[in-house]
Amino acid sequence: MLATLVSEPFNEPGWVYEEKYDGIRILAYKEGSNVTLLSRNDKDRSQSFPAIVRMILALRPATLLLDGEVIALDRDKISRFQLLQGRTGRARYAVFDCLYLNGRDLRCQTLSTRRAVLEKLISEHDELILSHRLARQGFDAFQIAKERGFEGLVAKRLESLYIEGRSRDWSKVKVNQEDEFIIAGYTEPRGSREYFGALFLGAYKARKLLYVGKVGTGFNRNNLASLYHKFQPLKRKTPAAEDLPHGTFLSPKLVAQISYTELTKDGRLRHPVYLALRDDKDANDVVLPEIDRLAGK
Known about the structure:
By secondary structure, the protein is of the alpha+beta class. Helices cover 15% and strands 37% of the residues. The strands form four sheets. Strands 12, 13, 14, 15, 16, 17 and 20 form a seven-stranded antiparallel beta sheet that branches. Strands 3, 4, 5, 6, 7 and 8 form a six-stranded mixed beta sheet that branches. The longest helix has 11 residues, at 111-121. The protein is globular, with a radius of gyration of 20 Å. Mean pLDDT is 92; it is low at 293-297.
């Protein structure tokens, strides 16, 4: 189940407001003595997070399906995807939903029922935690997210059922603008910069890849080198998107997480900064950010 992006915080009766984490969305399957962690693009991440696998294995139910986010926290207890990617932070599983329990399909139950199941099931551990609810009022929750420097919040209707796909019963409000974009090419380096200069970024709209601008900041020597080597087998002679500037073109396979101040009316990113490569996201799922201004109203 995916949340719909809305333009501003709101307060509605019968909704709860949770911290929006900056991590890897994971479905955790337990079947007897086997635990599998699957990302959104169906990659098995079980070997990447063995401590989380052990904690789920220790839970009582023989069969179980949990939904949550694998995160790593900085010193201020704020989730940072870069800490996960660089393996510099302890991985934790922030669980926010329970879909199956001992053979029972809970997706047709309300969120309030599913949360009650979770709260009985999970006691807080270093590697296994319940998703954090910020405040009872939506505006207060947004203020907390803003003051703490969280990525944003996710508002959820307590009577909502769990459905596959994007829903307006779950709405997300961002404090900081961060999204995933496809790497469509790069420019040659200048001056003391090695490997490449800037990345061409794109996103799909109506199945057409659109160019949204270049990003040339946020890199260090290590990620410049790592990215450059990943680019080599993806080189192509023709651009994958219209309006790409002159440079080296790449097949649209790699996804980058980018922070930015806004997406302009002509579809360009303002002040973009490269944050990380997202191997848990499929490039075909990267669409141009669009805000639903009616959700939650």
